[in-house]
Fold each of these.
Amino acid sequence: MPHTNMQNTLNSALSDVISALHSPRFTSTLVTLISKLVDYDCAVVLGYRQHKHPIYLYDSIDDQRDLLFQRYLTNSFQNDPFYLMLNQQQQQGVFTLTDIAKQGIDYQQYQTDFYQKTGWQDELSILIEIEPTRWIVLYLGYLQSDKRFKPQQVETLKSYFSVISSLCQTHWQQGGFTLASPVMGTTEATDTTKNCNNDTQQASDHIRIAIEQALLSFGESLLTKREQQVTALLAQGFDTKEIAEQLGVTQGTVKNHRKRIYAQLNVNSLSELFQLFLNHLITHTPSIPTK
């Protein structure tokens, strides 16, 4: 009976993901599916494009989030051992820190600079190729010092990798990387499941709403509505060509907007703009409500 219940839970979660394909709900429902397969404390989903900043898609972190935005997405990602392995190997799959060590990639300094400051104790990564220059990376982490990912958990994820990767490829091959929406109640769930996931989901929804509000309000007193649109896309990691395609304007128009945005916000580079937005996000994000 327990096995049957587990299978029913997985089938329900998988049905949710399939229903969410090509919608903003996809990333959230995908993470929910993965949570039915393995236990973890937090998750981060990023979109990687060759030689560009990663695109933030989703996270379930409720503490030390400023380090994710202030450090990782602006600069530290370049020293991320999973990112380095992706660039070196271009290999899909489920990977642990042990796999990183086997590849001869030194992650000790990164562990000191980033893991210890965020509180992450262990981490694994799911690397999925959408196309040769675009990848999805899902990070799963433990914050509790007595928890580590076990071989059985890794094997479970590997056994479902073809399903997870196929879903991601189907969803993202036809569209760009965009922020996730919160999971909406599309299927019936048991009271126990709802209670277990309620706090985590509320925190995730709160985080997403805070990010969207920050994107909408960033520079509003200095920029025009169109410049705000361009700024929000720049802050998410999109380049000039991608912004032009999304807004239906020429690349020259985007470049002109970008020059004025830099002047109005008193920044000289994309990195400085990124830092300014992240400071805005942190200072304008209220604490996550608790019971």
Note: Confidence is low (pLDDT under 50) at residues 182-197, 287-291.
Amino acid sequence: MTVTDPLDELLPDEVVLVMAIGESPHPVGARLALRALTEAGVRSSEASVSRMLGKLDGLGLTTQVGRKGRVLTPHGRAVVQARRSRARRSESFERALELRTVAEVLDWLRARRAIESEAAYLAALRVQPEMVDRMGEAVAAHEHAAQVGRLGFRIVGMDFHRLLAEAADSPVFQALIESLIAPRAVAVEQTLDMILAARGTIADSADDHRRLLAAITAKSPDAARTLMHDHLARMEREVEQFSQETNNLLTSALGLVDDSVGVN
């Protein structure tokens, strides 16, 4: 069963208001509520605030304490706490994926290896015929881009990884993989493109994807898992070796902090 956040049903101003009530140690009346909205950059009026407070009461998020104002109900406190926890997790995740050092890039690849290997296993079990066709088109586009040396071919290659996540037919794995290969990782992917070109292995990833597709099409989950594991493990080795051979050119290319890990 899908769990929804009741705050998603509110207007942005109403979310600001209910969060402000949750942060206040005292009951919040219309005047204090208006001040809280103003401090948050929201223009409103006492009349509008009163209507919003009435709506929050009707949703069971707040309750009136005599003439003092509103406080959160137990349900409201639980909802606000859940939103705060989600915001903290999101902030922590965003920081983790800033990829500020070579060591963090390697950890990013290791995390992908652990997750995407299992997704490949599931994809081989659950893939539908139409998805096989879409993945085949992605591999063909990747192969062509690699052959002509088109800049950013690994970004083309990432389409295969997204489709594989979809083929696994698992919201959990799809969400995890999409998070790890989201737009914030584009700069890293472009630098991996540079590394592969410099090392003369620019077509290897496309070849890896072709073998992965064959295993998934053949419904061979163990082979698919192993191939994905080996594919991303190879990328880790490419990064490690390139970093060592070029005296941290990778650090400069990515604008990373020199962590002096000597990646070994």
Note: The longest strand covers residues 62-65.
Amino acid sequence: IINKITVDHLDYHKTKSEYRRVKLEFAKDKAEKIYTFYGYREIKKLDNAIVFSKKVKDYYGNLYSSDFIYNHKRFALYWPFKYNVENFLICYNALLTEGFKEEKIRLNMMNIPIIPGRMEMVKPGENVFIDYAHTYPALNSLLKSVAKLRKYRIIAICGAGGNRDKSKRKMYRKSLAKYASKVIITDDNPRNEDEEEILNELKGKEHFIVIKDRKEAIEEGVKLYKSTSSSVLIIIGKGDEDYQIIKGKTFRFSDREEAIRCLS
């Protein structure tokens, strides 16, 4: 199943075109069938591609769920935002094609809970979320989707992994500056790279602040969330991970646990 090919791991592949070429080669050579949506030319022209429509009607979503009509059937999912709807629909279509019963697929899909670390609300009743977005397309889609709701002031906590593709950092900065009301830049697995250099590459102007220690960054983020009306706090980049890698050493650390502690 290929919903979308974006770009990642440029520290290894060097160019976007090479990354896409390798990913398509994997699909072409290893997969008996490739399920995809209309619009992805490189994929749908492959001999083993099976292509579906992703057009939905009457879409309604919030921070917690999505509701829409697809092929004259109504769906209600415990997953927010259209990019998650697309993920579900390509699986739905693939399972239909493989012979599974439509009603069973649809009912099971509507009972799938949020995956830990994927726009996960850390405490019931609080608009504080952790999300694993760690590529520019994922980060931008997340922030853009929340901003589209036009109900919340976005407070974002974000870093960038060390010894990885550096080119995405300026794109992170651009997206954070565009969509977030307040941005806290912090460590996110700096590994063996200079922490200050990473933070400086991410830092924008005006509504950006830098708090290197991720624990302190979350503490400040929760304070801002509590003191800002109609706000949502999104802690980005690590999701369900329970560690930090700093100067080659791995330490126990959980965004979820820290956020819950600060909210208590």
Note: The first strand starts at residue 34 and ends at 37.
Amino acid sequence: MTADSGAAGADRLGVTLLFSVVAHAVLALGITFQYEKAPPRLPSLDVILVQSANSETPEKADFIAQATNAGGGESDKAHRPAQPMSSALPKPLPGVAPVPLEDGAPRPTPPSPVERLTQHKSDFSVTTEREAQEAPELPLAEREAEQRRLEMARLAQEIQRESEQYAKRPKKKYISANTKEYEFAAYMRAWVARIERIGNLNYPDEARRRQLHGQLVLTVGLDRQGRVKSIDVIQSSGHKLLDDAAERIVRLAEPFPALPETKEKVDELYISRTWQFLPGDILRNR
């Protein structure tokens, strides 16, 4: 019994000395233990594709993209640009999944199994009696005053309608050889000089061959831009050839200069002149 106890104590002492020697060797020799490192991988580069760009280059970029973009967004912190919908690649932020919508139209209901009979015309009718409200009869003086007010309102409406129609009418000005107003007199002198120059260059050949002479009174209407609005023969020369030649000369001479700016603000100008086809194939306008 004593021998067995001594052997067990010697074994425990030997095991303790063994662990003590191993521990001192680890500390003395610097032997350490660590996990096995993962094999090295190829380096990766995260590039963000942006949809907008500007010419400003940031001093310190938060992300790498295909184009420069300084600023933008509503947050003070840097966030990775992303689309609101989820993509096939994993992202740290969850996407927005579509929410199913219910139909707005009511669901169809099955037909009623109960049958109802109707007819086009029924003999049954309901009559309703409404009490007619009689207008109180006004005294004679009040009726006459009301009639006068209605007549005055009708006359005022007619006057307003006539004034509006008159305001819409163009302002016309009629001038002749006796016009003394400076603006229109100067305009008419230039107009006459243009007519005589064009008329002598385009004197009618038929009148030259037949030696036709005469005079006529012609009124030419012009709009504000100087375009011919109307040509009226006030007094004929007695020869339709000369009357038509005068109208043709006016058409060849248009467009004329625009009307002068005056206080009257004339919209249409009518010039009445006497046209003379004289011997020697000369046209005079007076």
Note: The mean pLDDT is 76.
